[in-house]
Amino acid sequence: MRDRFYSSVFLGVCLMLAGGLSAAAGTGNSAVNVAVNTGRAVSESSLPTIDLSGYRDLVANNRGKALMVNFWATWCEPCRDEFPMIEGMAKKYGPQGLTVIGVSLDEDSDVSTARQFVATAHADFPNYRVKQGIDLNGFYQGVNPSWQGTMPQTIFYARDGHVARYLIGARPPAAFEDAIRLVLLNSAGETTSK
Fold it and tell me: What is the distance between the alpha carbons of residues 132 and 56, in angstroms, rounded to a whole number?
């Protein structure tokens, strides 16, 4: 009798879950996509788009924090190669006060690939995507006047909001560690590239 009771409860829970999933799928609402081979749900709201104004707002909203912003794209092999290191730095230095943000330069046609990449990488920091149709050269110059679009690029902001350091192109972990220590320990400093 007890076995039949637990079997009934288990079957009921399974049917409720299946019904809920079926109802969600039947609405046409694509609020949740499942990333292939990860088993992890990827929200449609992941990778919200930003333009230069939105980017400046992100930086301003993080004033008072040591901030590392990594610009990446799935079509950029060095970006893909360094992304696990960025994730590792976020985990290592987050408890010490480092805020990490990712910004994808993937196009609309590659947004599913970008979302899957973020899910597969288990990125525990917010990621955005540059809005399509904007003047990319203007965006690059507005973010960093020394940036000509070379990827990846990582910018380190001191707590007072100024650019303390930036890294253009693939760099070794030691370069990231030096820049992170700079923004964690020193809220004033000069803009430098290494």
Answer: 17
pTM: 0.74
pLDDT score of 186:
65
Give the separation between CA 87 and CA 10, rounded to whole angstroms. 38
pLDDT beneath 70, residues of the chain: 1-45, 186-194
Q: Copy the structure tokens of residue 17.
A: 């879950």
Q: In what order do the strands lie in the sheet with 66-72?
A: 49-50, 127-130, 98-104, 66-72, 153-157, 163-168, 192-193
Catalytic residues: 76, 79
**Domains, the chain, ordered by start:** 2-42 (no CATH), 46-193 (3.40.30.10)
Contact predicate 182/156, CB 8 Å:
yes
**Are 168 and 140 contacting, i.e. CB atoms less than 8 angstroms apart?**
no
